[in-house]
């Protein structure tokens, strides 16, 4: 029951958006056409469909009218939107974090049953030590005040509770490029502590960690970091969060999900197995790569 309550707001929002997108596509309309009819931006329609933004009941009513949906079907979708809004009035543990994009990711991650991620620059946030995360934040935002840094750190550390939550801990399947472990973020002591944290994570039954060594050469994930969030519900589908220079992008179309799933499988196939990864981590902790030059 607790897990269901935790997932309900985000899943209802995503289900509403997914339903609206399917109705739009059934009518052969694109985002630009719908935005013009709604007299709003394309990004607003996109955010509603991907679950990044809540859909106001009035917006849902107008969209259903455009799609020609009436009667009980329309009423059921309206009720779904009302329920999503009602549940979202409840404060979440990451509230009131004000980065909309990251807040949307954290909300989706909180409702997921599994995350498959590839990282080529940093240790995944779910596995970072506090000292490592703090070093990243201070480097990325050198002018940020202490309150902003503390809030970002609170959210980052709070996310890690997903891996140990009662009943249904989040499953994490992560592939790390060897470059992640070769750069001493925060200095020697901080990075050694981070390596020990990763070694400890390899013993968790719900975490599978693989290292992609330098000697594999070119590989399928060279375009950058991404995460695939999977949901237990049959109609929950999956979503991809792909990072880029100015932030990130949520993707949920079938062809996009297949593309990233295939990329992950190909990266995973080239990576070391879990036991080999544990041994390599222990070796790097004993003789760090950054001390060899």
List the helices and strands and how they pair.
Elements: H1 2-26, H2 31-38, H3 42-50, H4 57-66, H5 71-88, H6 100-111, E1 114-119, H7 130-140, H8 146-159, E2 171-177, H9 188-201, E3 207-212, E4 226-230, E5 238-244, E6 247-251, H10 254-270, H11 274-286
Parallel strand pairs: 1-2, 2-3
Antiparallel strand pairs: 1-4, 4-5, 5-6
How does this structure look, described?
This protein has eleven helices and six strands. The chain is an alpha/beta fold. The chain has two domains: 2-88, Orthogonal Bundle (434 Repressor (Amino-terminal Domain)), CATH 1.10.260; 100-291, Endonuclease, Chain A. The protein has a six-stranded mixed beta sheet with strand order 3-2-1-4-5-6, with helices on both faces. A hairpin with a 2-residue loop joins strand 5 (238-244) and strand 6. Helix 1 packs across helix 5 (71-88), helix 2 (31-38) packs across helix 3 and helix 9 (188-201) runs antiparallel to helix 11. The longest helix is centred in the first third of the chain and has 25 residues, at 2-26. The termini are far apart. The model is unreliable at 1-7 (pLDDT under 50).
Keywords:
293 residues, 434 Repressor (Amino-terminal Domain), 2 domains, 52% helix, Endonuclease, Chain A, alpha/beta, elongated
Quick description:
The chain is an alpha/beta fold and 293 residues long.
Supply the CATH architecture of the largest domain: 2-Layer Sandwich
**Biggest sheet architecture:** 6 strands, mixed
Treating each run of at least 4 consecutive H or I residues as one helix, how many helices?
Answer: 11
In total, the number of domains comes to 2
* CATH topology-level fold name of the largest domain: Endonuclease, Chain A
Distance between the termini: 54 Å
| DSSP helix fraction | 40-55%
Strand content: 5-15%
């Amino acid at each position: 029951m607790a897990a269901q309550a935790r997932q309900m707001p985000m899943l209802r929002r995503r289900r509403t958006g997914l339903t609206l997108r399917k109705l739009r596509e059934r009518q052969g309309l694109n985002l630009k056409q719908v935005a013009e009819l709604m007299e709003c931006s394309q990004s607003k329609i996109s955010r509603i469909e991907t679950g990044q933004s809540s859909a106001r009941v009035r917006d849902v009513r107008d969209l259903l009218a455009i799609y020609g949906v009436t009667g009980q079907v329309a009423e059921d979708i309206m009720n779904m939107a009302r329920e999503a809004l009602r549940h979202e009035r409840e404060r979440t543990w990451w509230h009131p974090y004000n980065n909309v994009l990251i807040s949307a990711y954290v909300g989706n991650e909180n409702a997921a049953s599994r995350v498959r991620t590839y990282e080529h620059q940093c240790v995944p946030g779910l596995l970072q030590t506090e000292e490592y995360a703090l070093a990243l934040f201070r480097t990325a935002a050198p002018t940020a005040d202490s309150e902003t840094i503390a809030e970002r750190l609170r959210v980052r550390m709070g996310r890690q509770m997903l891996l140990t939550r009662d009943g249904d801990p989040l499953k994490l399947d992560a592939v790390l490029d060897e470059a992640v472990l070769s750069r001493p973020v925060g200095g020697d002591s901080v990075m050694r502590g981070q390596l020990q944290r990763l070694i400890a994570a390899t013993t968790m039954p719900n975490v599978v960690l693989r290292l992609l060594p330098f000697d594999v050469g070119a590989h399928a994930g060279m375009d950058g970091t991404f995460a695939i969030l999977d949901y237990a519900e049959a109609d929950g589908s999956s979503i991809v969060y792909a990072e880029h220079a100015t932030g990130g992008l949520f993707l949920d179309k079938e062809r996009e999900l297949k593309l990233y799933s295939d990329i992950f499988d190909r990266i995973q196939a080239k990576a070391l197995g879990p036991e080999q990864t544990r041994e390599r981590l222990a070796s790097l902790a004993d003789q760090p790569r950054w001390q060899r030059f």
